[in-house]
Amino acid sequence: MAVRLITDSCTGCSLCLRACPYGAIEMVQKKARFTDACNQCGACGSACKFGAIEVQATFTREVDTSQYRGLWVIAESAGGGHGQFRRGTFELLGEGRRLADTLGTELSAVLLGDEVQGLAPMLIAHGADKVYLAQDPVLAHYRTGPYTDVLAGMIHKYKPEAVLISATPQGRDLAPRVAARVGAGLTADCTGLSIDPQDRLLVQTRPAFGGNLMATIVCRQARPQMATVRPGVMKALEPDPARAGEVVSVPVKLDERAVLTKVVEIIQQADEGKVNLQDAAIIVSGGRGLGKPENFALIRELAAAIGGAVGASRAAVDAGWIPAYHQVGQTGRTVQPKLYIACGISGAVQHLAGMSSAECIVAINKDPAAPIFNVATYGIVGDLFEIVPRLAKALREG
User: Of 208, 213, 182, 169, nearest to 72 (Cα)?
Assistant: First the structure.
């Protein structure tokens, strides 16, 4: 990243001072000037209305990769900038711990939010050696602009060799923006990671061509190496409250007036907060075989009887039978429950990519040739409209 001030174009409006999260700009004789605190985060570029600040991402083959060390995991809390962490954060810490140990390097978590210092020990307990902590009221809820500005500045200052972000809606929004800002490559929606301690290249595996093949990607020149990782495909470590780690406070000062987007209201659909497929131990999913949306009542009945969450295939979601946050599959949620019950789901490759890691899979389908039976632990060939109510009744009377 290269940030250049064009002094002749500067009007002294001070908009760049508001935008800089690190207090690295000062006004001298009504002209902006960068101080030694500038870490090239680029936040000032979009704030300047007079073309006086030029920000350019530098994609070069001349990066000195020896300057970059350590792995980072970007933590994401369920409340935006406060509250409990999403499961994908712990999964990335578990995978990051394995990769960091292979390299003999440090694993760090990055925590952004407001008054979230109390959450740092949880990240250390799940495998982090260090937590970089940036707090400000503007960071209380996720917004692309300020999160990108702060994170890009931290990357320029501390130079991690790899940055891992969970492929949640937030992560999928944040990662490409940060990668573009720091001039790094990004592999999206990875399902596998490995690393060679000799060349220190992160080997990233992701589905391609609709899940029909797996692509292996490495980034040889740019740094950091960046990847978003699909939740539900990595294993979290058992937390160890006795683990010791370091918390590094990164001072930032953000001005709400410089943020283009405002959080007006947070609205949840009626059952959205109750659906947590990625953490569910039992999932009962329905597909096209249900025939119509009203028949999802059978799936909900069985899920309630067994204490599970309700999932769905893409076909059911695309038909408008159930909201998208219930979708399991390559374009939905990737899950790892102890028990997955698929009702009226044929087993398209995209769906199998999201649930085939379940410990036990029970498939109910009237077509004995349905692909779902190829991955099922137990298969029931029959009419789901007869089988599902009988299962639910047996479980209730259990």
Answer: 182
Which residues make beta-bridge pairs with 214? Answer: 207
Q: Quickly tell me which residue has 């407001």 as its tokens.
A: 114
For 299-337, the pLDDT digits (tens) are 999 999 999 999 999 999 999 999 998 999 988 888 888
Domain 2-56: which CATH class?
alpha beta
Residue extents of the structural domains in the chain: 2-56, 65-254, 272-397
Token pair 């997955």 in the structure block, residue: 340
How many CA atoms, within 13 angstroms, populate the side-chain half-sphere of residue 291?
Answer: 8
Beta bridge partners of 225: 162
Q: Is 381 helix (H, G, I), strand (E, B) or coil?
A: strand
pLDDT confidence of residue 23: 87
- Number of other residues whose CB lies within 10 A of the CB of residue 309: 22
* Listed residue (309, 310, 313) closest to 330, CA to CA: 313
Classify domain 272-397 by CATH number: 3.40.50.1220
Cα radius of gyration rounded to whole Å, the chain: 24
Q: Which of helix, strand or coil describes residue 55?
A: strand
The helix (run of H) or strand (run of E) holding residue 299 is helix 296-306
pTM here is 0.75
Q: Which of 170, 162, 169 is nearest to 204 (CA)?
A: 162
180-194 residues labelled b (16+ CB within 10 A) or e (exposed): bbbbbbbbbbbbebe
Secondary element (H or E) of residue 90: helix 87-103
| Structure-block tokens of residue 168 | 């949640």
Per CATH, the architecture of 65-254 is what?
3-Layer(aba) Sandwich (3.40)
Q: Do domains 2-56 and 272-397 have the same CATH topology?
A: no
273 token code pair? 């907060």
Greatest alpha-carbon pair distance for the chain in Å reads: 82
pLDDT score, position 57: 65
Express each pLDDT in 58-78 by its tens digit. 655 567 888 899 999 999 987
Contact 386, 364 (CB under 8 A): no
How do residues 156-192 score in pLDDT, each as one tens digit? 999 999 999 998 889 999 999 999 999 898 999 898 9
